[in-house]
Amino acid sequence: MKKGYFGQFGGQFVPQTLMPALKELELAFTAFKKDKTVQAELKDLLKHYVGRPSPIYFSRNLSAKLGHRVYLKREDLNHTGSHKINNTLGQILLARYMGKKRIIAETGAGQHGVATATAAALMGLECVVYMGAEDVDRQRPNVERMKLLGATVIAVETGSRTLKEAVTETFKDWLSNLSTTYYLLGSAMGPYPYPDIVRHFQQIIGQETRRQIRAAEGQLPDLVLACVGGGSNAIGMFAPFRKDLSVRLIGVEAGGRGTKLGDHCSTLAKGSPGIFQGSYSYLLSSPSGQIADTHSISAGLDYPGVGPEHSWLKDLGRAEYVSVTDEDVLNAFQTLCRSEGILPALESSHAVAHLIKIAPTLPPDQIIVVNLSGRGDKDLGIVLAAGLGA
Amino acid sequence: MSTFINKKVIPYILAGYPNLKTTQTLLRHCHALGLTFIELGIPFSDPSADGPVIQAAASIASRSFDFTTLYQLLKQLKSEGLRFEFTMMTYANPLFVSGAENTLKRYSEVGVKGLLIPDIPFEERHFIDSLFKEKPPIQNVWMISENLSDKELSTIVKHSHYYLYLVSYLGTTGKSVDSTETLKTVIHKVKAIKDIDVAVGFGIRSKADAENILKFADGAIIGTQIITRLNEGTDKACDLLKTLSDNAS
Ligand SMILES: Cc1ncc(COP(=O)(O)O)c(C=O)c1O
Known about the structure:
The complex is a heterodimer. Chain A has helices at about 20-35, 35-50, 60-65, 85-95, 110-125, 135-140, 140-150, 165-175, 195-200, 205-215, 230-240, 265-270, 310-315, 325-340, 345-360, 380-385; strands at about 5, 10-15, 55-60, 70-75, 100-105, 125-130, 150-155, 180-185, 225, 250-255, 270-275, 280-285, 320-325, 365-370. By secondary structure, chain A is of the alpha/beta class. In chain A, the strands form 3 sheets. In chain A, strands 3-4-14-9-10-13 form a 6-stranded mixed sheet, sandwiched between helices. The longest helix of chain A has 16 residues, at about 20-35. Chain B is globular.
């Protein structure tokens, strides 16, 4: 495969002035992976700071209800409450390795922002987080957390005031501050080498799951599900299973409030290939090539693009990509709260929702793993406003 | 060989901002002033290399833009005998989605000679090539900047056959040029490799800026400032173009 590409997808679709920085990053990442001292430091942090390995939990009530053996991969139990910390600790060590003093990041739900602010605090580095103004409103607790952690949060007022604008503004900041600044990108998207870097740090999810499910069931799972925004928790879960063709992989996107362009974020399920934010990948754009507005109840999935490796897995037919509606998601959220005592992130609830939907159509007693990418404390305002808990 | 641009101010005209009628007015005005070498901006909803002024304008213009209507306008101007030399400046996705080969083939018939795609660097040029079964007669214009290594610069220059677009600083459009010394150094390196025109863009805000740049560069591209004036009124933008043409061509 051509370097930087997954089949025809990927590449480096950025202004020329950014190319030297991407080359610098690629070289540093290659050296970083071979540096034993820093790898040992990362391993230690993942164990003692994050709390890895995260458990897989046999969800007894959901399993009984659905007629399958359902396990939840508990990324919600990580320090800071989601899978995002796996990537931010890895990349913050890479930033330090490169001698960068200033960390910038985009965030949607605020989970990546919190995880970045946390890692920056730990390493004593300056941190600036760009967040769409709408997300600042709907994920308020995470904004306060980032500030407490010492980060500067910049509300982005352009366009749809969500994740895509936050990504654009972070790239622009980087473009103006290349020598001092490290862009700590939060999902498996963007220009090469970011999709590789983020997958590298997130694949620990799938690696652990493989071991854990073997220990629990003596075999690999029949089915693995994960939600897909930019695609980091999903690729982290899927990559270690890619060559196990008996394991069915399903990525679940946000179906939002309808199937009209602008009402959803089903990039892989409903979009077509295009060029956006650094890579050639599936994309939601208008017939004239303008980037579409999107909608999802979950800020972390509210994004019109997707990481290029998922586009490749889709076209290969190795993974399936589907979507569920906001309403399905709220029901799944409620189900997990009431049946397991677990309050999932709205993002992760997408994966649960799809499982609930297809469970009756599957052969009985399937071994299933759902990646529970994060916890839902940040979403209380949204679910209460939607009428849950009443 | 340096005869393409010939020490000219190159206006960046954002198509369809605030509407196509204004674009037509501006183009006629440019032509009357002898400003016939034009960067023709195609609006994009999410322009990653542009500062707030162009971004806001592009976002508005992108809502109603389509390649066919703009083509008809350019064809109309051509039929009236107005000759321009355009470089189309477009982000990759609108061009890609429109069907690049057909779009560029038609546009080449109405004066588009160059193609500048700010989110496709030289390293991804194969992607552009892959869009064509038969390449329309349009030249790629690559962006260069002070942070390229000598080797990278030399490769890009050798692959360029029209002119080069030198970005005056690292960042997005709409700030100000900080050091002309670095720009002179880059241009000097380019000319040592090949006799090819170099136009400088980003941060040129006034006739004084443009005159300063044209002392050592072949063209000076002015964009953000035209839109800033346009926001005050079409006549204000026309006044600016007049000033620029009087003093710098
Ligand atoms: C808990 C959680 N899951 C999933 C996502 C979506 O991102 P990705 O697709 O990169 O995993 C987010 C993003 O904010 C998140 O907070």
